[in-house]
Amino acid sequence: xxxxxxxNTSSCSVWYELCYLEAKGRVMKGNRVWQIAFGSGFKCNSxxxxxxxxxxxxxxxxxxxxxxxxxxxxxxxxxF
Length: 80
Fold this sequence. Notes:
Layout: H1 2-6, H2 13-23, E1 32-38, E2 44-50
Antiparallel strand pairs: 1-2
């Protein structure tokens, strides 16, 4: 969904992805999130985040204006 909304932001994508999870209410206190980012060539980075407080999915972030439009069904007439 990050690529759909923002395009290729390279390694910055991980921040948009974390905000997406928060906006969708999928991160709760005590959860761990493992993020992996791939760059050009053989570059790779990973991080494990632990949520230490309650997340309010209604708090404004970069996804607030259109989070209800995602995930997008890119296949015409497909049902999932």
